[in-house]
Amino acid sequence: MRAFLYDRPTAVDEAVAAVAADPQAAFLAGGTTQVDLMKDGVWTPDRLVDITRLPLRGILVESQQLKVGALTTMEELAAEPVVAQRLAFVREALLHGASVQLRNMATIGGNLLQRTRCRYFRDPTVSACNRRSPDSGCAAVDNVARMHAILGVDERCIALHASDVAVPLIAVDASVLVNGPAGQRRIPLTEFWVRADEGPSIENVLGHGDLITEIDIPLLPQGWRSGYLKVRDRASYEFALTSAAVALQLDGDLIADIRIALGGVGSVPWRAREAEEMLRGTPVDPLRFEQAGRAVMASAFTVPGTAFKVDLAVRTLSRQLLTMTEAKR
Amino acid sequence: MKTTRTTTRVPSAQDLYTVDVFTVVNGSPMQWRVDTRTTLLEALRDTAGLTGTKRGCDQGACGACTVHVDGKRVLSCLTLAAQADGRQVTTIEGLAGDDGPHPLQEAFLRHDAFQCGFCTPGQLMSAACLLREGRAGSDAAIREYMSGNLCRCGAYDNIVAAIRDVAKGAD
């Protein structure tokens, strides 16, 4: 691991100023991605500004939304009773991610900023990685791929955004509050990440010194139901091959309103608006569920190792829609 | 950390890359001056000499390095020692009470819940939290919430049986 300076400020402004002043500085939170990448030599900051003692922890429950401090851990958010009552799919996604040990360390802000698990990105002896070094190529496209994305990607990069909780969060239109050198601003998650096919080396819209301080999560209205289905290679402690976050409101046999996002398939957490539009206001119909899934997959870019994900994602979404539209849950 | 340095020392280039850590490990106050890169796992094993905590994958995948920080189970291989400053750390050496082994340690022996034993300290530390978290209500729950601890010998059935035993006894 490369040597680094270590600071631990106690105020947000101080932390932002410390990183903003040094182009080689970075914030450090739970460390579950960062320390790992530093050990691998993939990420080499000269200065770490440890933000874990900043007053950015805790959940404020309001009538229409949760205001979640960025340093709230995954376990803490999953344990919040209102999350179980009004955002079931957020809780399920949290508890299906990583392990308890990692969830006790990993923060919600950090989860949104996690780097791709692409093995070529994480191996500095692989030179072809457009995400790490622009215009160097993509080893994943030409070699063994499996845990890679099929949406929002092209031959330049097929890196997957592997977060589970980000999938329901983007479905429910969560947003982040950011403090940076230029002050405070709000960014909806739907505009937060940058697709790999829109620039493989840029992962999100944050600038140097920008710090996520809060995640605001709208509560689902009363009468909505939601769930998260994750399909993976082993039963627990594994990333998604495909996943589906569905929230909907039924009116008799009609889907009155619906929100859908998919995981395991996108270079960014994937909001499936085509599917939402095809299903909103329509009767519950398994054939239509599959058609909606196919519509989302129309733009898929696959390599031999990821071709299976097209059908798997359609079936994952269909199954979750069936579960969510069963008469009584 | 700057506040913990004595004012009479003249910082050298090397000092900029060291950090002073004050922590309480298994009830004993400790002070470490370590390279900023030092993980909590390395500090425990190499600085404090507490080698019960094991280095397995060293990348957060296996759970062998599991310890408690402020009562929560975490991975010491992905925790910087600097981040343990001011925290309470419990390792496998601190799991047993004054009056003998922890009930989980006895149950692991009774059920032969290991072969090589390398993952066992992490399994025990994880299981101790699992019980506190109230997640040992069924075998399925035990398996799910112990999934962050791998056992390459495949002693899982016996590990689940040992934990189930203690969970039932605690009812």
Automatic annotation (TrEMBL), chain A:
Residues 1-222 form the FAD-binding PCMH-type domain. Keywords: Oxidoreductase. Pfam families: CO_deh_flav_C (PF03450), FAD_binding_5 (PF00941). One of its GO terms (molecular function) is FAD binding. InterPro entries: CO_DH_flav_C (IPR005107), CO_DH_flav_C_dom_sf (IPR036683), Diverse_Substr_Oxidored (IPR051312), FAD-bd_PCMH (IPR016166), FAD-bd_PCMH-like_sf (IPR036318), FAD-bd_PCMH_sub1 (IPR016167), FAD-bd_PCMH_sub2 (IPR016169), Mopterin_DH_FAD-bd (IPR002346). Coiled coil: none annotated. This is Carbon-monoxide dehydrogenase medium subunit.
